[in-house]
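Table S2 (continued). Query chain:
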Amino acid sequence: MKKILAILSNFGYWGVELTGPMVKLDQAGYELVFATPKGARPIALPPSYEEKYWDPPLGTCVNSRFDIEQVKSIKDSPKLDHPINISEWIPERPYFSSQNFIREWEKYFKIVGERHKELEQYAGLLRTVLMAVEAALGLRPSRDRFRLIVWGACTRSSTI
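Corresponding output:
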């Protein structure tokens, strides 16, 4: 089975930004592997599954009953229980002012290169809002082998 690495925030995600692509990818035979910056279980933001949530910038209710049911069915799912801890997987970039900057920089890019190779097991990367992870891994979706799947609740579309 092909795997997709799904990157979510520790501080909450908008429900349909996960469930929308998750349902489609499950139907297409993909397995989602979850990751968060600190390895904490991702949580759906409560407004993303409230039936009468009114989005002030859009001036409308943004949650359909169908979306709410999907989010509620997945938000407490054991699938989200043990995400990969990205902070253990990818080190922090060294500071330019550190005493051994050059050696730390070399070590950092060696580790990032190893992690980049580990990503070859995934057919794609699903992200809702986190672009920093792509930058930390040095990924350029237009150049790299695997696909970046971007899903927006407003557009209800993706690149897959």
